[in-house]
Amino acid sequence: MPENALPLADKSASTTIHEPVLLHEVLTYLAPRPGGRYIDGTFGGGGHARAILEASAPDGRLLALDADPAAVERAQALAARYSGRLIPCHGNFRELARLARQYGFDAVDGILFDLGLSSDQLADPRRGFSFQLPGPLDMRFDPTQGTPAAVIVNTWSVEELADLFWRYGEEPRARAIARAIVAERARRPIETTTQLAELVVRVVGARRERIHPATRVFQALRIVVNEELEALVAGLEQAVALLRPSGRLVVIAFHSLEDRIVKQFMRREAAACLCPPGTPICVCGHVPRLRILTPRAVRPSAEEVVRNPRSRSARLRAAERV
Hints:
alpha/beta, Rossmann fold, DNA polymerase, domain 1, 13 helices, 13% strand, disordered N terminus
């Protein structure tokens, strides 16, 4: 279930109070220590970053990346408290290696990717991430570049939209929704979040689920607008290369598409051989780079889900550089 999959009656998207997901588990597996160097690939609301800095005091350092300029501003405001130990950086983790080298973090003790939206992003109607708040249909992490969701919704064909909603949102009514969008935009452009959300509800009805009927459509659009899966693949590969021996990689995913990529990547990098089954002698020459620390994905406790409903779909996986 996506991280913004709120119950229909839940209005918590309107708050800017950010609670980091799986915080105890992140600290357990990342194992920050004094003097260590760490990278937070998705600063967001800064909850994980604060905890890493506290755990690595007095001289641990953290490079905090985020594609969202608003998140970088939050990091800059926080940096003054940590006497040069927090280094904010505007950038996507798909450029992790270049940015790390630029700031002198080319060998690190731990890297965290929290792939969920922050409360600040969901609560700001101008960003277009929430189907519960009226705003422009944007969804870009970095509003200064890329294609807004409204362009996709108003220009793609039925076939392209249906494939998008099915592939990236696993939406069962993908084709019906795509047809309704094309019919609606022939009358007037679809420019706001609530326009799109109400259209989806009309097509699929109020399902008897905990999540809003538009959740999967919004997830799919956001993934494509920000090229999230491609960025994740690139970021994971670069992260392993940056880790020192015994350095830790921790990733929190919020839907099955992300989690599958993380799981398969870690398994591949932990394998001693990548030859096809039945190959009599290993010829691939693959050398394991990771040791998996979480044989199964770590999920939030029942208490955390009650306290923070957005955590319910979180899945944490961790590995150590060998």
